[in-house]
Amino acid sequence: MKQDWKPPRKQIGKPSRSLPVRVWGLLLILVALMITFYWGPHSPQTIAPDPPACHSSSTNQRQASQNDGEAQPPLPPTPPAEPEHIFTREIVPGDNLSAIFARLEISQVALCQIMAADESLLALDILRPGNVLTFTLDEKTRQLVRMELFVDAGKRVIYHRIDETSFDYEEILIPGEWRQQVLSGEIHGSFYNSAISSGLSDQETVTITDTFKEQLNFTRDIQAGDQFQVVRSRQFVDGQLTGQSRVEGARIIRRHRLHSAFLFEDGNYYNEKGESLARSFLRYPFKSRPRVSSHFSRARRHPVTRRMSPHNGVDFSMPVGTPILAMGDGRVSRVENHPFAGRYLEIRHGGRFATRYLHLHRVLVKPGQSVRRGQHIALSGNTGRSTGPHLHFELHINERPVNPLTAEIPTLVSIPKNKRKQFNQRVAELLAVMEQPENKIALR
Questions:
Q1: Which of 104, 139, 173 is the last residue of a domain?
Q2: For residue 207, what are the domain limits?
Q3: Does 440 reside within a domain?
Q4: Tens digit of pLDDT per residue, the chain (444 long)?
């Protein structure tokens, strides 16, 4: 019987060894082509991470500069870093010295020592936003050795350590340049608001109202359409406005009446006829004549510290509770409690004058209040650093302390004959400025 043919068993499931090699070679080539096509450098699927914004921006700027042919301005130089032992702080609303010292980790003992040095100056009691304090520490001990108060471009105070327990101070005043300016306007509503709108400051406006208050009532006498004209001078140091100013002349024109005021060298205001617009000052701020226990001096041995330091006023020995009088008409500018000067007040009298009353038991007036010559303003005391009950009294002219017992103060009702020519020349100069075409106002 014939049988069907079948392939040999050895060929079934046992292919030739050369065939898998070719197949695998083709598969590897195919895989390589696929990788090249899908993930190669020219593939549209390639995603690169975005470069940092600063790099991208600078590259674009360079390309734009090259394309436009324009050079980019150089970057501003980086300011030098503040040394680790020097700190500068600008005063902002709400600041106080104690908190500033605490933030800088400067001891309150150092603050107390500086306040003691400031007793005769009292500059640190009126820190305002914009003032700048610079502290210098010893690089090794981190002890405060110097503090500078920048008040404005024309005034700085430097407190420097003289030993382990005390500081001294140096006041630097730069005269600068005083530039005149004429401001004028019509009065609508109140004189105060009209003056402020013209560019006058609050203090300048107060000076004008205080000067004319004996001649007219600003509430009752002023009417809409009345006019005013003011010559003021402002202080500049190296072209920078310091904030210091003075009213040199003023005129108020109401209906058919003209009121004028001109500042003379004695610090008082007079009308065009040379008659004083303010009542004269008292020589002493009390009725009795107490004993002078310490005179005005540029270098006095302090009775407590035993160190030589300025004594910017006169001490009058008197019992606690003695009535103290305002030396002249003015406005209260300060009422403070100082650890060394005690309870004190300051009055600005318009023009160039200010008075201070220290070591008081009680103050009877408030900041901003108007006072009249001879008005009771306080009771003497023994507060602060004091060796006994007394009044420390200071007179300042043009922001500088002077001897109140010998200084020239407004005591005249009119310009004396020997000064009349000089005064008339000054009035003529101010009127010439007011009457310049760009400043002139029409009299009704």
A1: 173
A2: 177-279+416-434
A3: no
A4: 444 544 445 444 444 445 565 655 666 666 565 655 444 444 333 333 333 333 333 333 333 333 344 444 555 555 556 678 899 999 999 999 999 999 999 999 999 999 999 998 999 998 999 999 999 999 999 999 999 999 999 999 999 999 999 999 999 999 999 999 999 999 998 999 999 999 999 999 999 998 998 888 898 899 999 999 999 999 999 999 999 999 999 999 988 789 999 999 888 899 999 998 877 889 899 998 889 999 998 776 766 666 777 889 999 999 999 999 999 989 999 999 999 999 999 999 877 899 999 999 999 999 999 999 999 999 999 999 998 999 999 999 988 999 999 988 876 678 989 999 999 999 999 999 999 888 777 655
- Residue 86 and residue 126 in contact, taking contact as beta carbons nearer than 8 Å: no
pTM, whole model, 2 decimals? 0.72
Secondary structure (H, E, C), 171-186: EEECCCEEEEEEEEEE
- Long-range contacts for 194-200 (Cβ within 8 Å, ≥24 apart)? 194/228, 195/228, 195/230, 198/228, 198/230, 200/230, 200/232
